[in-house]
Amino acid sequence: MAPHETIALIGPPAAGKSRVGKRLAKLLSVPYVDTDAMVVSQHGPIPEIFATHGEPYFRELERAAVAVALQSPGVVSLGGGAVLDPETQADLAEARVVLLTVRAEAIAKRIANGKRPLVTDLDSWKRLVASRSDLYHSLADYTADTSSRPIDTIVEEIARWAQEEGHA
Question: Considering the domain boundaries, does residue 168 fall inside one?
Fold first, then answer.
């Protein structure tokens, strides 16, 4: 991976961005940053931020974390809604963007932990994904489905793509 390259992982909640991101960074021997983890480490749990301050405030914190994360080379996992910000969309033009998708049938157990404030059940997840799908696809340079294949297979495919494109 070139010293200045950034691979950004985007996609709906529970698509596996954090899990894939950690393994991809390890495989490519580059730094890894999770923007949701940045927000949590600086401001506390995301559900509490939503409950106390609302979504617009969270989106401001998220935007700040994304702006910092995308300035550094490596692999960056973005929160599912980070792409809604026009400035983030512009920043992503400078990165290699990987969209992780997942089918609804595979999502139920992933969203059962209650850690996602905008996703309370499968129907809310489906509505959220439908509303963002076109945007996700418009930003993506590469797409991988995480519904049922082994995570290591997905990570290896993304790494191979990055290397073939001359970005790793």
Answer: no
Q: By three-state DSSP, how is residue 29 classified? A: coil
- List the strands of the sheet with 32-34, edge to edge: 32-34, 74-77, 6-10, 96-101, 142-145
Residue count of the chain, please give it. 168
Backbone φ and ψ for 99, nearest 5 degrees, come out as: -95, 125
Rounded CA separation 9/30 (Å):
14
- 33 and 76 Cβ atoms separated by less than 8 Å: yes
Question: Tokens standing for 115?
Answer: 């850690």
152 within a domain of the structure (yes/no): yes
Q: Is the pTM of this model over 0.85?
A: yes
Q: Directed axis angle between helix 17-28 and helix 151-164, to 10°?
A: 50
Q: Which domain holds residue 146?
A: 6-159
* Structural domain contains residue 98: yes
| Residue 153 reports pLDDT greater than 80 | yes
Beta bridge partners of residue 75, listed in sequence order: 7, 32
Digit-coded pLDDT (tens) for 12-43: 988 999 999 999 999 999 999 999 999 999 99
